[in-house]
Design goal:
Elements: H1 13-26, H2 44-58, H3 64-69, H4 73-81, E1 99-103, E2 111-114, H5 125-131, E3 137-140, H6 155-169, E4 175-180, H7 182-196, E5 201-207, H8 223-235, H9 245-263, E6 273-278, H10 284-288, E7 301-306, H11 318-331
Parallel strand pairs: 2-3, 2-4, 4-5, 5-6, 6-7
Antiparallel strand pairs: 1-3
Length: about 350
């Protein structure tokens, strides 16, 4: 669980500048230098805007990965004032790889967590910390966020690409996948493709993901308007007038991802699936049929409820319950040669 921190006001000009930027981006009054950006309501998308503002104001381009390591004004000020620090959080040194190591010391079978519609994986930052250092935890980031690559064109194509990159790190199973929202649909397709190749996926968790596009892209959606609405909601302002390169690339990624979701229909997968469903939903009809997964999860579907909404279940305090359910489910994975443990329920 998160421990409240005492308020400490900015002490230096750099900290004062960053506090002003945080206030503008997060629309919160007087952040303290030890307040966590993400616990104050920051998201993957607002962190992109935050770093764009840092670059515009201070002339320094901070990698998004570094911000995950230091989501505090005091820590970020130290990073900006020092060129000698070495980051322990960075993408794998594989050219063009979408894999990002979120838990550097994990010894357990890696858990690969697929990006949601926004494309980045900072949304998993609080969850990665709560699963414990022993759980190797990788985020799988969308291509195209850097503006250098084209975004993925379809769910199956993204799944194939991510599987190829993962197999460079882990050539054979058992594999563990998880994804929130659109990431769940991609993780499901990745598991299905590996199953077709004769590989074993021992864990597949879908965090409030939907099997059909009506969960994320209702029929008749104006995708341009949806992208604008999505960005405005996440960034607390009109993103149409933000022409910073990172945000231009992000808009393009969102457009491609929404098209990919709208065009995708999942095919059956024969492994076990865990669905972690938000308790607070605006449309019960979408939730009623297990978010649409039961007909295609032919190996069995377990559904567990998580407090919060689709957008808050990965944030404190709801993420504590989510992490607890995932830890229990991971502990219940049968060990090789121990069939008696198969089928244990998470609690």
């Amino acid at each position: 669980a998160s421990t409240p921190v005492a308020f400490v006001a900015p002490r230096t000009p750099m900290e004062e500048t960053l506090a002003t930027l945080w206030t503008e981006v997060l629309d919160v009054p007087a952040p303290g230098i030890h307040d966590n950006f993400f616990q104050l309501g920051g998201t993957s998308l607002s962190s992109v805007l935050m770093l764009a503002r840092v670059q515009e104001t201070l002339g320094t381009d901070i990698p998004l990965e570094r911000f995950f390591e230091a989501p505090f004004i005091a820590a970020l000020a130290t990073v900006l004032e020092s060129s000698s620090e070495v980051s322990v959080y960075k993408p794998l040194e594989i050219p063009g790889s979408p894999l990002v190591l979120l838990s550097p010391n994990g010894t357990q079978t890696p858990l690969f967590c697929i990006h949601p519609v926004g494309g980045d994986v900072l949304c998993y930052s609080e969850l990665a910390r709560r699963l414990g250092e022993e759980q190797a935890f990788y985020g799988v980031r969308a291509q195209g966020l850097d503006g250098a690559q084209e975004p993925g064109q379809s769910i199956p194509a993204m799944a194939r690409s991510y599987v190829d990159h993962i197999r460079q790190l882990q050539p054979s199973g058992p594999y563990r996948f998880m994804g929130w929202s659109m990431g769940g649909a991609i993780a499901f397709e990745m598991a299905r493709q590996l199953e077709a190749q004769g590989e074993h996926v021992e864990f597949l968790a879908l965090i409030d993901a939907y099997a059909h596009p009506t969960g994320e892209v209702p029929p008749g959606t104006d995708l341009g308007a949806r992208v604008k609405q999505y960005l405005a909601q996440e960034l607390h302002q009109d993103a149409e007038h933000l022409d910073q390169p990172r945000l231009v690339a992000l808009r393009k990624v969102l457009e491609h991802h929404l098209l990919a979701i709208a065009a995708h229909t999942p095919e059956p997968y024969g492994g076990e699936v865990l669905l972690l469903q938000a308790e607070d939903v605006s449309n019960r009809a979408l939730q009623a049929n297990d978010n649409g997964w039961r007909p295609v999860a032919t190996g069995g579907l377990q559904v567990l409820s998580v407090p919060g909404t689709h957008h808050t279940l990965l944030r404190p305090p709801n993420v504590d319950r989510l992490a607890g359910l995932l830890r229990a489910a991971l502990r219940a994975i049968p060990r090789e040669g121990d069939p008696s443990s198969r089928g244990k329920q998470a609690s």
